[in-house]
Write a structure and sequence with these properties.
It is built from 67 helices and no strands. It is mostly helical. It is 68% helix and 0% strand. The longest helix is centred in the middle third of the chain and has 39 residues, at 847-885.
Length: 1339
């Protein structure tokens, strides 16, 4: 009792001391009894006593038995007590001690009722019955012996004979003779003798050779031997019996030596095949149920119920069922190397059922070890590795070891297939197989497909079903807690989990990323702990997720690409850039998709190139970025992209190597170029036009991005070797011309520079002028073959107007060749200087780091300056070359109008929508051709056709093309605005230039006469007319109601906002229409509403820069002059600005609608050249300039018509009869005048008399309005007549336009609404210079 007063930690010390001093065992028992009794009484805490008892178990070896005796005594004492709580205390104490007291000891000592309350047995009643049966069997059951005829002495001698030492000269034949003598002498039963032979063999299983030969000599019939073995197996089929391994061994040996048949023995083995199949199905269903529970939300009450059920199942499992004799025999067969019979048994069972048992799996692994050993020694052992050699089987009937990879097909592959995922039981064998696979791939140069691993394996094995569920559960746990802050810890967990089940983990991670794109960054950062194999598996899982046929790649509205595809594409770019993952699979997947006519997955290619190479493609560049993109590579990297491109050297090299190694560089380019033009037909179908346009843009942008990557990363030799000539690209591969030149352009630049460097090295002491001449000769040598090749790209009539040299020059040059972006270079250099200054002034930066940063900035600064100098020299050489070539660019075989038409169609329009830099290039090239004073090039006509033909061009553009086209128009307008802003600039850059000649038939004239040039004031009229045409085209597109028209024109208007509108009334008209769009589209089409609201806000901010019309150009119209010179050379006359303007350009002086229809019918950037253009246009480009005589006759005729009209208009006739008579007379006069003009002018497209007649009419209408107000009926009559006349003119113009460059869109022609007819009132006025007309018609 005094001992119990000691602290608990002193009790073990006390017992230890008593043990060391050999004190009586009763002391220990007494202490244990007192401790336990105090717990029963409730005086001591249970957990403290349990901890003390646990510590005491180490004091003596028999302490568990002693404690069990104490429990037995207390069991008897507490069972007789009336206090129930003491009995409960006792039960709790024993239950708490189960962790260190074996259950077997307690079952021996405690009563069955106590064992039942503790849960050690199921029912006390059944336990008692079982004890009775066992005791009866042990003590009362009598063994039977046949003692009537057989003598025990004979069996004793038989056992002695078989059990003797066999190491001497004793053979089976000698022993067999002795056995025969014993049988005869003692009258022994031969079957019982055979049974005893088998028993002795079983006990001496190492003597296989002796006993097998003995049995073979002794045996009478195989079926008898099978029956005896069957009886032996049947003896061990009781519930708690275990078949000895020796019996399995002798059965396997007999089968292996064909002494018995497997079919005869198999029927004696348990369990039945049906039972095995049911067990397998039950295991799979239980595994699936466990997996289902892991992903289900379980309530607490349901959890407790599930725990109880699981406990019951575990108790049932504790009752050991009879062992599986078929599996035991299978293991024995594998141990001795009998693969033939083992394979037969495994085929009788469900797949992988046998190998799911560890003993079978290990035996099969051992057999595989022995089979692959020779081949592994030859080809699989890594250098420097040490491993012990395995002892091969001496059995000649075992599978033959593999000496070559071909021998693996014989048995090894089938063994591995039966083994399946249970190869994991032997990591050494797993490593051997992996090394052999690596050696096989090196030797055979072939790669395997492992689709079964991911999609089939985990569904066919109960164990793997559970593992899959556990892996998913763990992956959920990690992904829920993954953030940017704990990337390192989560990454380690992901690395550990992916080592065993990567496909399951990556599948779940990818599914989460497809839903939540904000996980991309932390997931990518957490993948740094993966192995190389895991990275390959990740790439495979990504490709499989991309190719999932069950997922739609479009959103439900069918207008945009699904967000899951965009998320996976972003992940691809980030993962492949950061980690060394094999790219070939992903690149081949994109190539195969393009071959199948699907371009959705180009989004992946776009992201991969952008992230790995740092090449961005966007049309939202600022002007500064665009300027930087016209410089060298260093300037592009520093100032041309939105983000600083750093550390892409290694990743871009990996991407380049993957493309070159697998020969995918050129095929991808060609497939993208072909897919771009076919996307409307191959993928259009029933898809929304918005989506089709997006796919087209994606295909085009990826082509530009990918081509830029190849040009900047491939060496000159690699690029030239892979890109074929331009005629092969276009004629054989059917590559569009713009894409073909885009791919070939870097090749030409490389070849020219190489040739130029060769010439410089040959003559080192040459001067600057000689260097320029060498550059020109290098260009001629390289481009000569190109000039010949491009001839086959177009019909022969094309080359009647423009020469192949001009065509090739236009398509082969870039902005890098035309101008040096000095401002961009200076800007970036100043940034670096400021950065150096900031580094010096920052005291927190360490000195060594400060030094490195300064050196880096200084090196970049020097590179930029060197690059600028190099580009400046290059531009000088190019300009010198162009100056020498310009005289041979354009021929004089046909009119300048046709020359401009072909230039626009074949050169300008296709390239201006190719990329943002090409848009700027096109505008600057037109300006350069003008500045070079190129013969036969009419600058005025070129600009007029560009600004007057935007409706169909805008309608045919995609969204991104609209951005580029708007940028092109903005650059063109910048030039025009600069000339318009100052007379000095205009006279310096335009006067005396052949591009501003108004006699279009003139050839070879540098500047022309003074009277042939367009003067400054008339040029201002022309610019106003262009602004007016842009306004009318914009209003038309905005009022069509078509999504594409409205979206594209709003994009174009936003791009040209710095230069247009400049006239106040035109800006107000646009503002009114855009405001209407905002109201109409607010709830219908949000994207159009956003565009319109954005443009509207920016347009309002530009109002302060707009000017009234009379400030934009001289609006007054003085009296008409009759000077012959002014009649012959309209631009030189100031008497009629609009008329004079019309003589300066091809069809540019038509009224508003006339200019629209003609320009739309004659210029289009998409369609190919149409020979009918020459038939529609006049022979010299403008019939109004044929001769002074024709002009005078026409003027006289118009004057007489005007006088008649003035008389009629002044006559006060407001009655309906008078108005009808006036209208009929007017129509007759128009028809007569029209017939006369047609007869006189032949094929002239635009009658001038109508324009001359419209002037005095409008003037008179203004006078009448001043006198009589707006309600004059003659004004209304005249307006209706003009509308009618306008409709007739539209019909003629439409018919004529069918032979032009692009036929009008049928939908635009047919869908004419009443609102369109009302809007056309604007067109009936002859001059766009009247602001009041514009306001009325556009309000």
């Amino acid at each position: 009792i005094s001992l119990l007063l000691n602290p608990y930690d002193e009790i073990p010390e006390f017992l230890k001391s008593t043990t060391e001093t050999n004190c009586c065992c009763n002391t220990t028992v007494l202490v244990l009894y007192e401790l336990c009794w105090q717990v029963v009484q409730g005086n001591l805490k249970l957990d403290l006593v349990v901890s003390v008892l646990r510590d005491m178990m180490e004091l003596r070896d028999d302490m568990q038995s002693v404690l069990a005796d104490v429990f037995c005594i207390l069991d008897l004492e507490t069972s007789s007590l009336e206090e129930k709580n003491k009995r409960d205390h006792y039960t709790q104490l024993v239950g708490a001690c189960l962790c260190f007291v074996p259950e077997a000891i307690l079952k021996e000592r405690l009563d069955p009722e106590t064992l039942e309350s503790l849960g050690l047995i199921k029912q006390a009643h059944q336990f008692n019955q079982k004890i009775v049966k066992i005791k009866t069997k042990l003590f009362y059951k009598q063994q039977k012996f046949n003692l009537l005829r057989e003598e025990n002495e004979g069996y004793a001698k038989l056992i002695t004979e078989l059990g003797q030492d066999l190491s001497g000269n004793i053979t089976s034949n000698l022993v067999l003779e002795s056995i025969k003598s014993l049988i005869g002498c003692f009258n022994l039963d031969p079957n019982r003798v055979l049974d005893i032979i088998l028993e002795v063999y079983e006990s001496r299983s190492d003597q296989d050779e002796f006993f097998l030969s003995l049995i073979k000599s002794y045996m009478c019939e195989p079926i008898t031997l099978c029956h005896i073995l069957g009886f032996k197996f049947k003896f061990y089929q009781e519930p708690n019996e275990e078949t000895p391994k020796s019996l399995y061994h002798i059965a396997a040996a007999l089968l292996h030596h064909n002494l018995i048949e497997l079919e005869d023995l198999y029927v004696h083995l348990m369990p039945l095949d049906a039972t095995i199949i049911e067990e397998h199905k039950r295991e799979i269903s239980e595994a699936k149920q466990i997996a289902r529970k892991l992903v289900m939300v379980v309530l607490p009450s349901e959890k407790s119920e599930d725990k109880e059920k699981e406990k019951e199942k575990e108790e049932e499992k504790n009752e050991k069922p009879p062992d599986n004799q078929k599996l035991g025999l299978l293991e024995a067969l594998l141990r001795i190397g009998d693969w033939h019979h083992a394979q037969i048994i495994m085929n009788q069972m469900p797949s992988f059922y046998a190998s799911s048992h560890k003993a079978i799996a290990l035996a099969l692994c051992q057999l595989v070890h022995l089979t692959v050993e020779p081949l592994y020694r030859r080809a699989g052992v890594p250098k420097g590795a040490r491993s012990c050699k395995m002892q091969l089987l001496m059995n000649k009937r075992a599978p033959q070891p593999a000496e070559s990879f071909e021998d693996l097909r014989r048995d090894t592959f089938s063994m591995l297939c039966y083994l399946g995922p249970h190869l994991s039981h032997d990591p050494i064998l797993f490593a051997k197989i992996v090394r052999l696979g690596k050696a096989f791939m090196k030797e055979v140069k072939k790669k395997n497909n492992n689709n079964n691993w991911k999609n089939e394996t985990y569904s066919g094995h109960p164990l793997l079903v559970k593992v899959k569920a556990q892996t998913v559960d763990r992956a959920k746990y990690i992904m829920k807690r993954l953030t940017k802050e704990n990337v390192k810890q989560s990454g380690r967990q992901i690395g550990k989990l992916s080592h065993s089940n990567p496909t399951i983990l990556f599948d779940y991670m990818l599914s989460q990323i497809q839903w939540y794109d904000n996980l991309i960054v932390p997931v990518v950062d957490s993948l740094k702990f993966l192995t190389s194999l895991n990275y390959d598996v990740l790439a495979y899982c990504i490709i499989e997720a991309l190719a999932n046929p069950e997922k739609e790649k479009m959103k439900h509205d069918d207008t945009t690409i699904s967000s899951w595809l965009q998320s996976l594409a972003s992940l691809c770019g980030a993962v492949f850039r950061k980690y060394p993952i094999e790219l070939a699979g992903l690149l081949q997947y994109v190539t195969n998709q393009l071959k199948a006519g699907k371009s959705f997955d180009l989004l992946i290619m776009k992201e991969v190139v952008q992230k790995m190479a740092g090449i961005e493609i966007t049309d939202e560049m600022t002007s500064e970025q665009l300027e930087a993109m016209t410089g060298g590579e260093q300037l592009k990297a520093e100032g041309g992209y939105f983000g600083q491109i750093r550390n892409t050297k290694k990743s871009s090299q990996r991407l380049k190597d993957a493309l070159l190694d697998h020969e995918l560089a050129l095929p991808l380019c060609l497939l993208m170029a072909q897919q771009r033009n076919g996307v409307v037909f191959l993928e259009g179908g029933e898809k929304h036009l918005k989506l089709v346009g997006h796919l087209y843009d994606q295909c085009h942008d990826t082509l530009v991005q990918f081509g830029g990557f190849l040009a900047s990363n491939l060496s000159t030799e690699d690029y030239i070797k892979r890109v074929p000539s331009i005629d092969v690209l276009c004629n054989q591969f059917h590559t569009p011309h713009d894409a073909a030149f885009f791919l070939s352009r870097p090749m030409y630049a490389h070849q020219i520079l190489s040739k130029y460097d060769e010439m410089k090295k040959a003559d080192k002491g040459s001067r600057q002028q000689q260097k320029a001449q060498k550059y020109v000769s290098a260009c001629e040598q390289v481009m000569a073959s190109v000039h010949e090749a491009v001839v086959s790209l177009h019909p022969a009539r094309v080359w009647d107007d423009i020469r192949p040299q001009f065509y090739s020059t236009f398509w082969s040059l870039t902005m890098y060749d035309l101008a040096v972006p000095q401002a961009a270079y200076d800007r970036e250099v100043n940034k670096l200087k400021a950065q150096i200054k900031a580094i010096e002034e920052n005291p927190e930066i360490p000195l060594n780091k400060k030094k490195k940063e300064k050196e880096r900035c200084t090196a970049l600064q020097e590179k930029l300056q060197e690059e600028e100098k190099k580009q400046a020299e290059h531009v000088q050489r190019v300009l010198h070359r162009l100056k020498l070539e310009k005289d041979n660019w354009l021929l004089a075989k046909s009119t300048k109008n046709e020359t401009i038409t072909k230039f626009l169609q074949l050169c300008l329009f296709p390239r201006c929508i190719f990329s943002s830099i090409d848009a700027v290039y096109c505008a600057r090239f037109v300006e350069l051709v003008h500045q070079q004073k190129t013969p036969n090039f009419c600058t005025l006509l070129c600009y007029d056709r560009v600004f007057s033909a935007i409706i169909y061009t805008v309608a045919s553009c995609t969204e991104n093309e609209s951005h580029r086209y708007g940028r092109f128009l903005c650059c063109m307008l910048e030039t025009v605005t600069r000339w318009h802003s100052d007379r000095v600039i205009y006279e310096k850059e335009c006067v005396n230039y052949p591009g501003f000649l108004t006699i279009f038939r003139a050839t070879g004239i540098e500047g022309g006469n003074k009277v042939d040039q367009l003067d400054y004031e008339n040029f201002r009229h022309v610019v106003h007319k262009w602004h007016y045409m842009l306004t009318k085209a914009s209003v038309h597109c905005l009022e069509t109601g078509d999504y594409t028209h409205i979206r594209n024109i709003l994009i174009v208007l936003t791009k040209i906002l710095p230069c247009y509108p400049k006239v106040l009334n035109l800006g107000q008209a646009l503002e009114c229409r855009v405001h209407k769009i905002c109201l109409e589209e607010k709830d219908k089409r949000p994207d159009l509403y956003a565009l319109a609201m954005g443009y509207s806000g920016r347009l309002k901010s530009q109002k302060v820069h707009m000017v009234p019309e009379n400030e934009f150009h001289h609006k007054d119209q003085p009296a008409r002059s009759t000077t012959p010179a002014s009649q012959q050379n309209g631009p030189g006359s100031t008497s009629k600005p609009a008329t004079g303007t019309s003589k300066s350009e091809e069809g540019a002086s038509d009224d508003g609608d006339r200019g629209k229809d003609k320009s739309q019918g004659t210029a289009n950037p998409v369609n190919k050249a149409n020979s009918a253009t020459a038939k529609v246009t006049t022979s010299n480009g403008n019939g109004a300039l044929n001769s002074a005589k024709g002009v005078k006759e026409r003027d006289d005729k118009e004057k007489s018509v005007k006088e008649k009209k003035e008389k009629k208009e002044k006559t006060p006739g407001s009655t309906p009869e008078t108005k009808a008579e006036n209208r009929r007379e007017k129509q007759r006069e128009e028809r007569a005048g029209k017939e006369e003009r047609v007869a006189r002018e032949g094929k002239e497209k635009t009658p001038k008399a109508d324009r001359e007649k419209a002037k005095p009419e409008e003037k008179n209408s203004k006078d009448d309005k001043t006198k009589a107000g707006n309600g004059d009926p003659t004004e209304l009559t005249r307006e209706r007549d003009a509308v009618k006349e306008h409709k007739n003119k539209e019909k003629v113009d439409r018919n004529a336009a069918t032979g032009s460059l692009k036929s009008p869109n049928p939908r635009l022609e047919s869908a004419e609404s009443e609102r369109d007819h009302k809007r056309r009132k604007l067109d009936c006025h002859s001059s766009p210079s009247h602001s009041s007309t514009v306001k009325v018609s556009m309000a």
